[in-house]
Amino acid sequence: MSTVTVFDHPLIQHKLSIIRNKDTGVKEFRELVSEVASLMCYEVTRNLETEAIEIETPVGPATVRQLAGKKLAIVPILRAGLGMVDGILQLIPSAKVGHIGLFRDPETLEPVKYYCKMPNDIANRDVIVIDPMLATGGSASAAITFIKEYGCKSIKLMNLIGAPEGIARIQADHPDVDIYIAAIDARLNDHGYIVPGLGDAGDRIFGTK
Length: 209
Ligand code: PRP
Ligand code: URA
What we know:
The chain has helices at 10-20, 26-44, 85-91, 138-148, 164-173, 201-206; strands spanning 4-6, 50-57, 60-67, 72-78, 96-97, 99-104, 111-117, 126-130, 133-134, 155-162, 178-184, 187-188, 194-195. It is α/β, with parallel strands linked by helices. The strands form 3 sheets. Strands 1, 4, 5, 6, 7, 8, 9, 10 and 11 form a 9-stranded mixed sheet that branches. Helix 1 (10-20) runs antiparallel to helix 2 (26-44) and helix 2 (26-44) packs across helix 3 (85-91). Bound molecules: 1-O-pyrophosphono-5-O-phosphono-alpha-D-ribofuranose and uracil.
């Protein structure tokens, strides 16, 4: 069974409270989604391997540690996942970025794929799939299934807000994928929106409503 890490850090919870507020405008919303992604990235990458190297400081030789092992790729689920990319790249500027375009059919709530472009060497990278919302879990599960078809063995999922239904779906479909999330809300409404959630993440990031 995959693990679920819920971020109860005060800075993340404070920023999330502003993101959730319906009166928060698009500029502040976008900035805060990026900031929270950055803060979460710090913890999601906690177990990256490091290796000892020898350098010279101005004062003398030193054995220091640098990142080793497999490289990272982040895969935002379009559109809303794009809002988390810059925050992560600020911490991991050399990460490669794959894109997968999915939208939820409003009637069936099933994900529909319309775009995909992955780094050539994604099979050899640790992958972090990012999307602010994990509602039914259909979009994230489909994205992860697709990424696995490239041969990826190490995949993590990072979301801002999830519903219990979405968590259960990922754990059932992908027990090997750990979930990192800032909040787990009460439920989904009849339209598949997370309650209380934050509304439509893509519309709020891009100002399309
Ligand atoms: C939203 C969100 C997720 C998906 C979550 O995207 O960003 O990708 O819904 O719902 P699910 O867990 O039930 O699949 P949406 O389909 O609204 O597309 P958008 O990002 O382009 O607005
Ligand atoms: N997608 C969103 O953007 N918000 C929700 O609450 C559910 C799916």
